[in-house]
Amino acid sequence: ETVTSGASHAMESLVSAAQVEAPKAEAKAKELYDTTKAGVTHAAEESSHAAQRLIASAHQAAAQMEHRTKEAVGQEVLNLYAPKQVQSLSGCFGVSCAVSTLDHCEFLVGEDKRSHMKTAISAYKAL
Questions:
Q1: DSSP 3-state assignment of 78?
Q2: Quick check: pTM over 0.85?
Q3: Which superkingdom (predicted)?
Q4: Which of 93, 67, 66, 98 is nearest to 81 (CA)?
Q5: What gap in Å lies between CA 38 and CA 36, rounded to an integer?
Q6: What is the domain range of residue 80?
Q7: Could you tell me which residues come within 8 angstroms of residue 90 by beta carbon, excluding any fewer than 6 positions away?
Q8: How many domains does the chain divide into?
Q9: Which of 8, 9, 63, 108 is most buried, judging by how many CB atoms fall within 10 Å of its CB?
């Protein structure tokens, strides 16, 4: 009976210790979970922001490339069809203004080049 009483007493001590330690362990586990969750959430937000910045940068680069392409095509139209006086407008007012002037003043271009010029200007405007 002494052995049983000792074992019973040891078991009660273990249960009592477990009851005291369990809330502490639970609180520590919750704290660790919350910290991990906050870290993962922060990392996900940072990744999302980085992706958004990358997409915005790609859109900006595409827009710049589109603008440069249109400018190059417009400059080529001017070089091929515009008289020197109209070509000089691109330096002051930009290529689009000079191409627009050429479009409105088509009489400045010889009859033999006029249809090709109109096609080239239409292609420029389509960009």
A1: helix
A2: no
A3: Eukaryota
A4: 98
A5: 5
A6: 2-126
A7: 74, 75, 78, 97, 98
A8: 1
A9: 108
